[in-house]
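Researcher: I'm preparing a figure for a lab meeting and need a structural model of a single chain. I don't have an experimental structure, so a prediction will have to do for now. The sequence is pasted below. Please return the structure as tokens so I can convert it later.
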Amino acid sequence: MSRAILRLACTATVAAQMALTPVAAVGAPEPQRSVAELLTDLQQRYRQTEQATETYNATTEKLERQRAEVARLDGELARARLTLQAGRTDAGRLARQQYQNSGGLGPYARVLLAPDPQHALDEGHVIGELARQRARTVTRLASAEKHTDALARAARKALDTQLTLAGRQKRQRDDVRAGLADVERLLATLSPEQIAAVARLEQQGVGEAQQRLATSGSLPADRPAGPAGTRAVRYALDQLGKPYQWGAQGPDAYDCSGLTAQAWTRAGTPIPRTSQEQWKRLAKVPLNRLRPGDLVVYFPEATHVAMYVGGGNVVQAPRPGEKVTVSPMAGYPILGAVRPGADQRS
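Model: Understood. Here is the structure written out token by token.
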């Protein structure tokens, strides 16, 4: 995590020194904050940004499904309209045939006036069959009209939902960007010495948390991965060094749940896209029974996720400014762990 602070701060500090120096000359200086306060502030802002990212990811997934539903309904509506048009054509054709065969006379008059009454009766049978066909066609036509109207209403509703989701996605995207800008502004106010001190304190906290995990008996013993877990871990480790990018799920960049979701998809077991849904829908597993490939979920809101790789470590896309890396599993407050369905056995 400290590498992210250092990387993000490099450009931000230079820009801030140029932009903030004139203001500092005329404004009252801000009181110095302790390194611990700065670290807490940074961690809180990163957490808020990641929470916004996962909310954005969930909406993006819903929007993709909704777009597919709109396309499906549009296709079905187009086919229904063609069927309706064909039905109307058939109804018109049968009506013309019935009129032409009847000669404009009623059935009794045709029998009385016909030179050959038997022939007239035979024609009357044909006319009756045409009438019955027309009645069936009209019934189908009415049903087709009803079905087409229902599809048109559903398509309009689906499109309205799509537009609503698109608007929500844009607002959430703006929230993520605002959160990242907020982090960069804070980093820009720090000196290189403060940044280094924050990084050291952060690493110290991770080490202490990992030690507490081991002391409590929650640190997993080495256990073999299942076949799908092995494939998922292999894929995740192959992504080491690729940058974190919010909303991304490969192949060139990832966010936290984008990495875990893509790894398990490549392993043949698709799982939900977001960390919240992964926590909600996958089977829970005790920390001390973790196997490589299991997912460790962090924070009370389940806003971060990593993949266990053994030896008390996870592979993860940590946060903006960092790259996919292997790190101690206690790097964030742990909520719990889950195991995707293909490797449910203990």
